[in-house]
Automatic annotation (TrEMBL), chain A:
Lineage start: Bacteria, Pseudomonadati, Pseudomonadota, Alphaproteobacteria, Rhodobacterales
Ranges annotated as spanning the membrane: 12-32, 72-94, 101-122, 153-178, 199-222, 260-280
SUPFAM superfamilies (UniProt xref): MetI-like
InterPro entries noted in UniProt: ABC_transporter_permease (IPR051393), MetI-like (IPR000515), MetI-like_sf (IPR035906)
Chief location bin: membrane
Database matches in PANTHER family: ABC TRANSPORTER PERMEASE PROTEIN, INNER MEMBRANE ABC TRANSPORTER PERMEASE PROTEIN YCJO
Protein's name according to its UniProt entry: Sugar ABC transporter permease
UniProtKB/TrEMBL annotation, chain B:
Transmembrane domains' residue ranges: 32-53, 92-114, 126-146, 158-181, 202-227, 262-280
Matches recorded under PROSITE patterns: ABC_TM1 (PS50928)
Domain of life: Bacteria
Gene3D superfamilies in alphabetical order: MetI-like (1.10.3720.10)
Any matching Pfam family: BPD_transp_1
Membrane association type: Multi-pass membrane protein
UniProt family annotation: Belongs to the binding-protein-dependent transport system permease family.
Record lineage: Bacteria, Pseudomonadati, Pseudomonadota, Alphaproteobacteria, Rhodobacterales
Name of protein: Carbohydrate ABC transporter permease
Localization in the cell: Cell membrane
Residue span(s) of domain ABC transmembrane type-1: 88-280
Keywords: Cell membrane, Membrane, Transmembrane, Transmembrane helix, Transport
Amino acid sequence: MKTDTFWRHATLWPALVLFALLTVLPLIKLFALSFNDVEWINREAVWDWVGLANYARLPEDNLLRAGALNTLIFAVVAVALQMLIGFVLALLTVQVVRGRVFYRTVFILPILVPGIIIGAIWKLMYSYDFGVLNSFLAWFGLTPQDWLGNPDLALLSVIIVDVWHWTPFCFLLLLAGLESLPDDIFEAARIDGATRWQQLRYITLPLMMPTIAVTFVFRMILAFKVFDEIYLLTGGGPGTSTEVISFTIYRRFFTEDQTGYGAAMSIAVIAVIAAGIIAATRATAGKGAKA
Amino acid sequence: MTDVTNSPLTVAGSRRRRFNASERQVALMRHLVLMSFALIVLFPFFWIISAAFKTQIDLLMGKIFFTPRIDGFLDVIFDKTSDFARNFGNSMVIGLISTFLVLIVATLAAFSLYRLQWPGWVLHSLLGWSVIFHMVPPITLAGAWFTMFRSVGLDNSYTGIILAHTTLHLPMALWMMGVFVRDVPKELVEAAQIDGAKVPQILWHVVLPIVRPGLAATGILTFIFSWNEFPVVLVLSQRQTATVPLGIGKYAQENTIAFTEMAAASTLSILPAFLLLLFAQRFIVRGLTSGAVK
């Protein structure tokens, strides 16, 4: 029995230690930093206690406000489009008998490519002077667009890239869900004379709800973390039109070296996310639904 | 995961209506729609690869027809001022070591949590914490990692970046290995324990054979995500330890962007993902969908 307890602990402790040292400790550090002004002198951090002053600055930070708003718009619009297109593609693909593996292979590809490279690819295609998108527009006699330089268009351009990048992820999860649906129900529905639309509305959708929910949550989480593509495509600009929350933190913390203030911003974002998760868990648990 | 091309659903449907002309039209339309989406997905890849073979002038003139040249690739790989070969090596080292560590830590922890009778609160608080950490933008903790690593001399070191990547991908691996470890029958573990087997023996002889496909799926995805990761290396590494995404990012930040080189470097950096997709798609699909569909 003694050895059992030993191995029980020995197998779990590596994960615990890693989490403690690299997630809990940094969080405590971040929390401590957020009450200070920090200056780096000869690689030594010099802390200067400022109390809640860093937190008091948060509501007045225009960049943060723009970042939060853009992140919200970006996440909602991009994920909604991805879910919709992904679901349609999955519905079409699941009915394909020959060539399904081909479609799946092609549609998975963007998921595996670094966000930074996706950014590089689209930066080339979006270029005002020689980008292929403007060549297309010119062929059709339309005015070329300054995709990334026009403040009214930049956020949409970034959303288009994200939809291209991540629709495949929704597609893949929803396809797997559709493939695992029991076939006899559809068979019975067909015998009873249910139309395709009725099958979709009354059988597929209700049965797919858990998969749809999980896919939606996964995508939302990732969308709120968006950083790479935007870093490369626009750097948050023009102005603040594509500023997102990760970018604001990066800017304050690193580019401007406002360590204490950046820490306060990080803590605030983490707190909002943790509260959101706990609220969501409570809500689903209350309904007796299992996540 | 049903990895069958002919799901019973479609087979039954198509067999009955094999000679129905309107069904055939529907199928044709379906292929047309899917094909056009496939083109939308593939076109940007085609574009970046073709850009890698153009000269800067061909590129800036937006030429469709051009004489392919491999100067871009040569510059990126062999030019003395290019860091790309080094970035590629760094990405490999960091990706492989952190994947190795993630697999060991996650498999042990998943086995421990699901098969060694921990009280429920341990399981739930550890998984809950890992979910929260997974949802938080990495850039928030990257700041703290930077200050911590700097104070112990780990900034701009392989050790620091590997540790960061290991931690970053642990929640996903823990989640996935949890799904796979639960495929190991409890009775099998208990029987082995009664026979006097120690935990290492059980892990090696009972668990490992069953979770091997799961390990492949988790490992491949961890490696890809480490290869792709950007914000944390942006903060933690400098020139010597820079990875591929940092190298690409640098091209795009120059005043006059060397588009040919950027395209060539991008093309080379997509290669590992391409190869894995061709040869290990089964595992990638299994990994990405594990947990979402059960």
